[in-house]
Amino acid sequence: MDLTLDGDVVRAGGRARERFYDSRGYGRARNGDLDLAPVEAAHLLYRGDVEAVDGMAFRELLGSSAVSMVDFLVYKDLRDRGFYLTPAREDWVEDPDGVDFVVYPRGQGPWDDEVAYRVRVVGERDDVPASSLGDCVLAVVDEESEITYLETATREVGGTSDASVTAVDGELLTERVVCWDPPSDVYEQAFYGQRLDDDAVQLSLVEAAYLARTGDLRVEGGPDAVAERGREVEGERFDRRLTVYAALRDAGVVPKTGFKFGADFRTYADVESVENLGHSELLVRALPAAHRFEPRDLALDVRLAHGVRKTMVFALVGDGVEWVEVQRLTP
Amino acid sequence: MDLTLDGDVVRAGGRARERFYDSRGYGRARNGDLDLAPVEAAHLLYRGDVEAVDGMAFRELLGSSAVSMVDFLVYKDLRDRGFYLTPAREDWVEDPDGVDFVVYPRGQGPWDDEVAYRVRVVGERDDVPASSLGDCVLAVVDEESEITYLETATREVGGTSDASVTAVDGELLTERVVCWDPPSDVYEQAFYGQRLDDDAVQLSLVEAAYLARTGDLRVEGGPDAVAERGREVEGERFDRRLTVYAALRDAGVVPKTGFKFGADFRTYADVESVENLGHSELLVRALPAAHRFEPRDLALDVRLAHGVRKTMVFALVGDGVEWVEVQRLTP
């Protein structure tokens, strides 16, 4: 069987089309013949289904610049898991932008219309722009060639928690605001702050800045004094976190510190009272929209969130806030 | 009862000494009288045991520059947990360097010789030099005034795994080295690399650089070619990781990638064969000795390690490698 490398396409004839495309979903049919991406040809070589491509055996093709090793590893892994998939090239699949493979549901192939996953291949040392996430599965190939699949999706956040409280006085003390003898709803219902004792509640700077802005907290110097203190101790990160905090509160979600989980916030969607607090659902990390992830940091966040039965959400702060959820996936 | 603020010491008389030092371990006895640190005086005010210090009530003292809010929160928390503790001042405790409080075992106090914890108070926004860890408990006060205790200790690492293998040939392919038809001990016994299939093992660059250096891997260009590729894709981090990898292997421990846990390595102390592989014990992050931690990153690593029943170890690379273990502590 004759397979020839023509630029970045491997050309094969009608018999190859019948054998590889029609029955096993490799490549793209073209006028009765077959076009294969080099990574697909490498897989056929690897399996022993063909013997050579342009005279090259598997090792040679893999060592050539025609095939990326990480692409091959992901292609092979998905085939091993029982999927048919197509390299995401212009005219080969719909909307190839930003992904490397289009994966079909098990039992389906390029002849069908359904897509199970849109997969982007990433080496563990490649950085990943946050703005490029949201409609793809990252297949991260680590240095030992293990693959971690991370499903990314844009989402909304929302809940039924009530952010409004009886107005309260507070005193700015270094990195917190203390409310002496606050009305009980501040902590008990709306879950702002943390009790110092029965007679006092401490607010974080971000909580205090939000409440001062809504007019529910009276503090010397007003909202500006609190935000200024926040910037002094946190820099520009403070404003970013305040934007995300406010977006969550405004959406009916209670954000509390995510420090113990290494995140900015953990969130509670439906707080009626602190006494009957449920499990927090999300871990939120606030990032500038232009942020670029190191895959290892992504893996760390997602793994931790999974371990504590929460969903990792990145809040990308640009003109507004975009929410991107990332979860581990086993295809 | 008269308490007066004298510089950074609160002076009190003999009755206060009997009541607070002799029976409850506050302060330091001085010629039958009592010296208190302001944080201790604040706690006595908070509890209502004294009414004023130099005319100041609790709120006023806490709002003054004499008492740090985070120190107070940790002092109070440890008292609430049933401990007596002494502010780490020169002449008040032995070896006060690098810590804020010396905490005695429950039931003991400053009259006894035993120390349970040496505690350093850290705000979540303060950075922590890696070199300052090893003989202290960090009490990290987060923005909502919750306290996370992290116990740090220097340690050794060691195991019984054998790093030597039959010499093998390898081919450098972008970010990995592939060994075609390797001797079985490379993967099966010594646990280098990852199977591509029955006939090939892929080594990570750090594994390959180590094996090339020991002479067990023959690769075009030798160890330098592998290390150079490593630096191309990872920068100076590669050499740091190689140093840590080699130190672990030389100590009889098998390091494998820690990518899925967001770390540099996970380690196996006693590998006889991959078939009977036990649980990996440590997660290792390689850092320059001059590294400064953000407490949030520390919390993330330690939390994750705990969740997967491993111990978090930081490998600080300077002239040699120093190993610092960090674990969550509930005092």
Automatic annotation (TrEMBL), chains A, B:
Catalytic reaction annotation: pretRNA = a 3'-half-tRNA molecule with a 5'-OH end + a 5'-half-tRNA molecule with a 2',3'-cyclic phosphate end + an intron with a 2',3'-cyclic phosphate and a 5'-hydroxyl terminus
Entry annotated with the keyword Metal-binding: no
Subunit structure: Homodimer.
Keyword annotations of the record: Lyase, tRNA processing
Protein name stated in the entry: tRNA-splicing endonuclease
Cellular component aspect of the GO annotation: cytoplasm
Similarity comment: Belongs to the tRNA-intron endonuclease family. Archaeal long subfamily.
Keyword Thylakoid: no
Residues the record marks as active site: 268, 279, 310
Any one GO molecular-function label of the UniProt entry: nucleic acid binding
UniProt cross-references to SUPFAM superfamilies, sorted A to Z: tRNA-intron endonuclease catalytic domain-like, tRNA-intron endonuclease N-terminal domain-like
Every tRNA intron endonuclease N-terminal domain range: 1-62, 168-220
Domain tRNA intron endonuclease catalytic residues, every copy: 238-318
Organism annotation: Haloarcula rubra
